[in-house]
């Protein structure tokens, strides 16, 4: 039976979703020098003195954001399905364990009852009159055989 760690799956899904949402967009900015006056622009400088500067921004496009939300919802749904599957498997496993336990308990009770019959047959044999000794010996032998067959797994 596989053990699935749903919390770690959910954490992984969350990290992937957040990284998609916070992907960094690069915009090129130009630093221009016009007679000692420094200006910044998104277009190259007109006089040819170009000093490109890369500036990062944390803005995310609306489409990327919507896609990340869809992906996150899909992953949450998958995690929920896996959790439900795991709960069903755990319940099935618990039922199997309970059934095995109940069977073992019934077997133990049966064995204990047969051992008690062997004990009583032995007492009857030791207390039997000479005329009834043969019958008591047979009864003890049968009780011992039954107990040995039923209790062989103990």
Question: How are the secondary structure elements laid out?
Answer:
Elements: H1 6-21, E1 25-34, E2 37-41, E3 51-57, H2 62-127, H3 133-150
Antiparallel strand pairs: 1-2, 1-3
Structure in words:
This protein has 154 residues and is α+β, with helices and mostly antiparallel strands. It folds into two domains: 6-23 and 60-149, no CATH class; 24-59, no CATH class. The chain is built from three helices and three strands, in the order H-E-E-E-H-H. The chain has helices at 6-21, 62-127, 133-150; strands at 25-34, 37-41, 51-57. Strands 2-1-3 form a three-stranded antiparallel beta sheet, with no helix packed on it. Helix 1 packs antiparallel against helix 2 and helix 2 packs antiparallel against helix 3 (133-150).
Main features:
154 residues; alpha+beta; 3-stranded antiparallel sheet; 3 strands
Low-confidence stretches: 21-26
Order of helices and strands, N to C? HEEEHH
Strand content: 5-15%
The tally of helices reads: 3
Question: What's the domain count?
Answer: 2
Cα separation of the termini: 28 Å
Described by strand count, sense and barrel closure, the largest sheet is: 3 strands, antiparallel
Average pLDDT value? 81
The order of strands across the largest sheet is 2-1-3
Q: What is the tally of beta strands?
A: 3
Rg over CA atoms, rounded to whole Å, is: 41 Å
The backbone outline, from C-alpha atoms, is rod-shaped
Alpha-beta content class: alpha+beta
Percent range of helical residues: 55-70%
Overview in brief:
The protein is an alpha+beta fold.
